Structures are given as structure tokens and as C-alpha cells.
Amino acid sequence: MTQDEFRTQLRRHDLKATRQRLAVHEVMMQLGHASADMVCEELRQRGSAVTVASVYNILSQLADFRIYNRLLSATNKMFFDVNNAHHVHLYDRHNHSYRDLWDEELQALVNAHLKRRKFKGYSVEDINIQLIVRPTARKAKS
Question: How many domains would you assign to the chain?
């Protein structure tokens, strides 16, 4: 999402394109998947004085409006994803990082299965598939 597309998304939700929101988005576009700590550290390296709490609030607000997605890691740390298209995530529990996995067949299987299921008192709002992985011995050496 370009800065102009991001600004359009903000306007759609009556949010101002503040300097901090734009800076956070720029970093998120570079990182793809990140925690508030990671974004804050990158902003500090770029010379911006911003608190982790401010970054977390911005990321949470963007996730609330579905501009970004939330991802809860296997260690219960909140990550955010700039790509809100339906896709699977690989969470590397060793390196604490995410990768997108585009597997349309898996998505279709899960969607088809859930269409046949009813959850009394609930409707499925979204599906978030996260595979928790660790590097193989060969991958760890490279």
C-alpha cells in the first residue's frame, strides 16, 4: 500500500494522516510484519523520538479499522501485518518472525469446511491460519 493509498484508507475512517501515522506506515511497509517494539526501534534509528506505547496505539488503531491485521505470536507477543489479504502465516518461533505463505488450496479447504459448520450463537468473521515452525537443521546452518 503506497502512502497515497494509505492516506485514502485513513480518510475513509476519518483519521488524520499525522506525521507519526505516516512514519509508522513507512516502516511497516519495509518490515511487513512487526511488533510495536520493532517499529519503534526502526523509527529511533531514523531519528524519530517516539514511544513504544504511541506506536502500539497507532498499530492497534489501524488494525481496529482493518487497515492492518493483528497476529499473536506463539510467545503471546502482538505483531502487525500490512497485508490484509487472506493468506497463511508461517511463524518462526526460533527467530520470532513471520512470513507470508500463499496457499490458495489450503485457504479453500478451510473455507469450504467452515461453510458447512455452524457455531451456535456465533458467525465466523475472519479466518487466520498461522503455522508455527522452526528452522530445519539445514536452514539453521545457512
Answer: 2
